[in-house]
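Quick one, tokens below. Sequence please?
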């Protein structure tokens, strides 16, 4: 395992030598010993150390605090201050560099080692935390749904890019929880906003493995409304992770499907012809109102049963069954059928239903009652036959003359 590398910044040559010897004895690698801020930055750029021991009082243009801030900002080198002073104003100013420790002169090897080990440990943990935060931000910024982090007081701490894309708000102009709650539910009474996606009572803390996300209509920054699916989780520290997805298009598509289905069903039932949908086993899948009325009481349990049993009262399809022929060749077929169980003569037309792969998986049957038409045709035929017989048996000569 590599030895920790230490940069010593001390303008007292005696203390510099003492620190070098102590650090070497303790097993650390001293990258350089310098006496000014400028030298410290140059050495750190050449050979980045794991830690810098910084005298808080340095002679020259840059004192120890300025040097520590530069090392932390430019090169991310953590610092332990070495000082013989405990002035509160000086120590307050020294916090700007986010030091990992202070050593008050004089100090012994044990104190030096403890301070260095603690500083190195804290720096490792800070780096891991920063890396985790970087990964978190990378993941959340790339997420296809909006993510918000809220403090225990319900103020916003973080919004990802998708959140801004959906709602138009950034972390700088997103409304507070009360204003947002009103925007979320402009048409509802305040008591109805208890299930708001965020607010004092509004965060739905389902937790992992909880129920499905809740869906709300939200008002965006530009005044437009969107339907959004929300899910929130409360962390142990009281903060909330809120995820939301714009489902406006999906909801509108669902509503359009429902409207289309309703219209289709109304149309299906409004058609005066009898209509049935059969599968590839001759089983009834669906029928319209006209077919149900024609079947009478038998329609109540007809769905799922064989057409030839329910409609025709037969144990198997007839050889001339148009549906059987449709299943054989996949083409439309037509037939006329006199069916006492339906109360008349019907013109039957069948059309195939195809699966995506082209297979015939059923058929649509349309049965038009042509009883009156057939009776009229029969009466016309009888009248014509009677007229023919009358003319043929008349004793008087009968003939026609053209123009």
């Amino acid at each position: 395992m590599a030895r920790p590398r230490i940069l010593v910044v001390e303008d007292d040559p005696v203390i510099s030598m003492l620190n070098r010897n102590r650090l070497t004895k303790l097993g650390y690698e001293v990258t350089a010993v310098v006496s000014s801020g400028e030298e410290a930055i140059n050495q750190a750029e050449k050979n980045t150390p794991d830690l810098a021991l910084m005298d808080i009082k340095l002679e020259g243009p840059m004192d120890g605090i300025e040097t520590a801030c530069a090392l932390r900002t430019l090169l991310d080198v953590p610092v332990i201050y070495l000082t013989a002073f405990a002035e509160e104003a000086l120590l307050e100013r020294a916090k700007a560099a986010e030091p990992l420790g202070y050593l008050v002169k004089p100090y012994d090897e044990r104190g030096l080692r403890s301070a260095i080990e603690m500083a190195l440990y804290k720096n490792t943990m800070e780096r891991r935390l920063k890396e985790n935060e970087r990964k978190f931000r990378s993941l959340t910024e790339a997420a296809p749904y909006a993510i918000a982090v809220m403090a225990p007081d319900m103020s916003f701490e973080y919004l990802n890019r998708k959140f801004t894309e959906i709602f138009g708000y950034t972390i700088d102009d997103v409304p507070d929880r009360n204003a947002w709650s009103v925007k979320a539910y402009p048409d509802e009474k305040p008591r109805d906003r208890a299930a708001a996606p965020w607010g004092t009572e509004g965060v739905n803390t389902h937790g992992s493995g909880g129920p499905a996300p809740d869906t709300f209509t939200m008002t965006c920054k530009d005044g437009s409304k969107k339907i959004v699916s929300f899910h929130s989780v409360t962390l142990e520290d009281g903060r909330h992770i809120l995820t939301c997805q714009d489902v406006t298009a999906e909801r509108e598509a669902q509503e359009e499907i429902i409207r289309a289905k309703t219209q289709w069903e109304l149309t299906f039932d409004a058609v005066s012809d009898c209509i049935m949908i059969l599968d590839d086993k001759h089983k009834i899948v669906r029928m319209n109102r006209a077919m149900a009325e024609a079947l009478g009481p038998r329609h109540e349990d007809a769905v799922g049963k064989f057409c030839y049993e329910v409609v025709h009262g037969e144990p198997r399809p007839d050889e001339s069954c148009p549906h059987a022929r449709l299943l054989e060749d996949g083409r439309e077929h037509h037939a006329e059928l006199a069916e006492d169980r339906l109360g008349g003569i019907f013109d039957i037309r069948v059309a195939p239903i195809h699966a995506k792969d082209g297979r015939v998986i059923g058929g649509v049957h349309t049965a038009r009652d042509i009883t009156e038409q057939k009776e009229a045709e029969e009466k016309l035929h009888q009248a014509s036959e009677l007229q023919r017989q009358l003319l043929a048996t008349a004793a008087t000569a009968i003939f026609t003359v053209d123009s």
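Residues 185-196, 198-212 have pLDDT under 50 and may be disordered. Residues 204 and 232 are 6 Å apart (CA to CA).
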